[in-house]
Every structure is written in C-alpha cells, then in structure tokens.
Automatic annotation (TrEMBL):
Bilayer-crossing regions: 12-37, 49-70
UniProt keyword annotations, A-Z: Membrane, Transmembrane, Transmembrane helix
Name of the protein described by the UniProt record: 7TM_GPCR_Srx domain-containing protein
High-level lineage: Eukaryota, Metazoa, Ecdysozoa, Nematoda, Chromadorea
Keyword Membrane: yes
Keyword Transmembrane among record annotations: yes
Amino acid sequence: MASPSGTVVLLAYTFFSFEFLTDIFVLAIACLNLAVIGPTKLLHPNLKFILITQSVAVVLFVLVRSAMLVPKFISTDDLFTPANLILQKYSVEYLAIR
C-alpha cells in the first residue's frame, strides 16, 4: 500500500491538533461546570444530579477520545491506522449512554 502524500499527512495532523485543542477546551468547561454546580444550593437535587452526571460523562468521553489521539501524535508509523479497539469500545459506550 502506498503511503499518503506529505500534504495529506500535514492536513491530518492539522485536524488531529484542532480536535485535541477542542477536547482540552471542552474538558476545561466541563470541569468548571462541575466546580460551579457541585457546591451550589440553588438547584433542585434532581437537576443538580442530571447536570453533574452530564459533566462527568463529557469528562470521561473527552479523556477516552484524547487517549485515542495521543498515540497517533507520538507514533510515526502510520497516522491512519485505527485506534485501540478497547478504547473505541468505551468511546461507543459513552456515546450510547449520552
């Protein structure tokens, strides 16, 4: 199989970098959400539970997705190989829960 051209690899690294930066931003917002909602007494307990559960699900999803992206940055073998199957399974389960 022929290796992809340099332009395609550069474009792929650009998209991976953009996704990784977006994941860091989403993780920061979810952690901020947890820090604000956790100690508040103004919300109904059911709503508070729903919002905390949603933030935890987002944090777990971002961590699993980042765990799939980081090895692609580190390895120089093949950028277009699929991620670890175990991580893909957990990623799909988090999407099913959401």
